[in-house]
């Protein structure tokens, strides 16, 4: 199942980006997609002449050419060098060229970058297409893929349902193409337990009943996604995939990293923009907290119809 047609691989540090380029080439081959390699050179603090900019860009272009040379027999690879702020130039390039996947080596930001937003965090929140952040120690092939999903059965939204469907599509397709073990996890929490205990004549019994009802409610939602996946990919592919479903009580920031560690997942696929106030939905600091705990690659997906706040005219 081909999911991508036009892939952008961002190379900010060639020493850290070798496995990332390998992954990008493999994905482009498997999807018969176009592949562009891009470097963003941070704009100098002091003004430089046009001739200096041209010479600097030429040096970086030559370096990129050498970097991708070993893969040219496998694939026709385009490459480019831009100058400016990393995440802005990446997103503008996505808007200009219609890339449907950005692949980049994950950063290891210092405290100030985490506080004000590293390029990775800006991409997670603002890039309109899926973003694959690879870890330096990532394997060349995925043996285990973990997808994180969420839902609200009481007030289901079209945005939420479409996001889950997109997550199911991408994760199952990658798992099938990589012959990888496939797991889905849903984090839930009994957010009203304290209130139930406070106002009940029999706090323990009332709390237990409340928790069991919540668990059953979320199990129904997970069963619905199980059936949805089976219908999406067909019974034969579903049986071949043999997905494993995990219903875990707790905050997504704890459940997802712990499950990924337990399963030794090579890739975690999750949504990064959703409504607030619902346990398990991933937005802003939640995604950042999860990313910092993971030791595997992450594929972050936006809801269909998401509009980036970045503009070509900014």
**In whole angstroms, how far apart are the ends?**
36 Å
Largest sheet: 10 strands, mixed
The spatial strand order of the largest sheet comes to 3-2-1-4-5-10-9-6-7-8
Contiguous low-pLDDT stretches (5 residues minimum) are 274-282
Per DSSP E runs of 2 or more residues, the count of β-strands stands at: 10
Q: Report helical residue fraction.
A: 40-55%
Task: Determine the structural class based on helices, strands and strand pairing.
Answer: alpha/beta
Roughly how many Å is the radius of gyration? Answer: 21 Å
H/E series: EHEHEHEHHEEHEHHHEHEHE
Task: Summarize the helices and strands and which ones pair or pack.
Blueprint: E1 6-10, H1 14-31, E2 34-41, H2 50-68, E3 77-83, H3 86-97, E4 101-105, H4 111-116, H5 119-126, E5 131-134, E6 144-148, H6 158-178, E7 181-188, H7 193-199, H8 203-233, H9 235-241, E8 244-249, H10 252-263, E9 267-271, H11 285-293, E10 297-301
Helix pairs in contact: 3-5, 6-8, 7-8, 8-9, 10-11
């Amino acid at each position: 199942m081909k999911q991508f047609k036009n892939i952008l691989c961002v190379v900010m540090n060639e020493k850290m980006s070798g496995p990332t380029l390998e992954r990008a080439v493999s994905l482009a081959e498997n999807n018969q997609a176009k592949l562009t390699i891009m470097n963003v050179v941070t704009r100098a603090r002091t003004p430089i002449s046009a001739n200096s900019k041209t010479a600097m860009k030429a040096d970086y272009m030559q370096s990129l050419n050498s970097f991708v040379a070993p893969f040219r027999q496998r694939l026709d690879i385009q490459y480019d060098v831009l100058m400016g702020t990393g995440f802005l130039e990446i997103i503008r390039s996505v808007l200009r060229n219609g890339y449907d996947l950005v692949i980049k080596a994950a950063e290891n930001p210092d405290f100030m970058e985490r506080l004000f937003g590293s390029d990775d965090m800006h991409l997670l929140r603002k890039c309109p297409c899926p973003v694959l952040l690879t870890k330096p120690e990532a394997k060349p092939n995925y043996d285990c893929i973990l997808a994180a999903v969420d839902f609200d059965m009481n007030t289901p939204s079209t945005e939420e349902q479409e996001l889950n469907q997109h997550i199911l599509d991408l994760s199952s397709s990658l798992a099938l193409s990589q012959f990888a073990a496939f797991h889905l996890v849903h984090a839930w929490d009994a957010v009203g337990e304290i209130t139930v205990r406070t106002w009940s004549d029999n706090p323990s019994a009332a709390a237990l009943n409340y928790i069991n009802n919540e668990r059953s409610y979320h199990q129904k939602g997970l069963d619905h996604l199980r059936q949805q996946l089976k219908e999406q990919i067909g019974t034969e592919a579903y049986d071949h995939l043999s997905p494993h479903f995990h219903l875990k009580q707790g905050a997504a920031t704890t459940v997802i990293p712990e499950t990924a560690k337990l399963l030794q997942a090579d890739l975690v696929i999750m949504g990064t923009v959703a409504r607030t106030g619902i346990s398990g939905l991933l937005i802003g600091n939640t995604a950042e907290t999860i990313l910092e705990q993971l030791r595997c690659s992450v594929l972050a997906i936006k809801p269909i119809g998401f509009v980036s706040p970045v503009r070509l005219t900014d």
